[in-house]
Write a structure and sequence with these properties.
464 residues, alpha/beta, FAD/NAD(P)-binding domain, Enolase-like, domain 1, 3 domains, 5-stranded parallel β-sheet, 33% helix
Amino acid sequence: MPDTTHDLVIIGAGPGGYVAAIRAAQLGMDVACVDEHSQLGGTCLRVGCIPSKALLESSHLYEQTAHELGVHGIKVKDVSLDLKAMLDRKDKVVSTLSGGIAGLFKKSKIKHYQGTGSINADKAVVVTDSKGKSQTVKAKNILIATGSRPASIPGVDLSLDKVDTSTDALSYDKPPKHLAVIGAGYIGLEIGSIWRRLGSKVTVLEYLDRVLPGMDAQLARHAHRTFEKQGINYELKSRVTGVKSGKQGVTIEREGADPVKADRVLVAVGRAPHTEGLGVEEMGIERDSRGFITVDENFQTNIHNIYAIGDVIPTMMLAHVAEEEGIACVEKIATGYGHVNYDVIPAVVFTHPEIASVGRSESGLKDEAHEYKSGLFNFKGNGRAHAIEQADGFVKIVSDKKTDRVLGVHIIGPDAGSLIAECASAMQYGATAEDIYRTCHAHPTLSEAVKEAAMAVDGRAIHA
């Protein structure tokens, strides 16, 4: 096929890549996006964020119907699980959203080249389809947005039968009798929660002495207690040294402790940048010791007009971060200006209750000897939380001791993922805790818990 030239070629159609493509088209660029899959949306949409949230919602409704509706005066008999229908619904959600992205590409006149992309010595992208046929796509600018892949640890071979990644664990044809999860981060806790609700015994093995590494310690302790009550078993301080797979299941070996036997094991120890086959080494594109592509403040690599965003660079590995970086990158290319405020990045764990955080943690501030004050409000003091039978959890706000400017917010409780947005917006505009509590919040709503936590910073909470 003849060579084609574009203003911008993006390798990867995940949240960072496709959002960058649409914004670049809005800015008047001729844009192409290379992705090997017919379904656009990347790992996040196809086998990550979206399907996992679909199953989290379905499994929660199943558990609620089977065990929790009686308190509302609703009696349900003979509740049964149709896992195939649940998985079909998950797949339908994915196909609907992927089709929506394809429609946006068509609307924005973005060309989708289906195949794998690699950068050659002429700074062009060679697209190779599933049949091995190649074509060269030239561009004034190239943006790498290939995301990440599941990581593992020494002694754990992801190619073994019954040794699963998050992708595998979203498509089991039946709930495992016993699912072991290596890693107590958000991926392990979310997927572990899905199968626990659907009938699996779930054991989480974590190397550290706590769950949710990186999140506020008080938040993590509350989450640990809550999930234990729900039936998840934790084995903290467990250093996994190897996994053996056999006909009867898997055996997880641990240093200084008895092995754990399970039907399947989910390896959820994080993710690694996906840069294989891109021509990164051949082009001399610099990477750090962990394999992440290094970029400057413009998201440009050490090679002129080659950029990178999202999980392949050493920033927070979150879909919405990749989106922000994609927009900022192409705006910098087109206008000379674009910005991401990495101090105000919300993170959400979609368990039940939900967990959300933005900004600095209390322990981090202590480590830096940063003078702060904090306020905590429990959802048990919130009328709406009781009305919906979800009064577990709290909102905690930390602010600067001198200026009162909000430094971080940490929530575990109902709809935490939505409540954190108000806090992120407040922090983006430099709000103080008093600014939040002087803002009228509707009654009865869960957001009143945010207001009360802000009041608690100065000892003024009303319903505590």
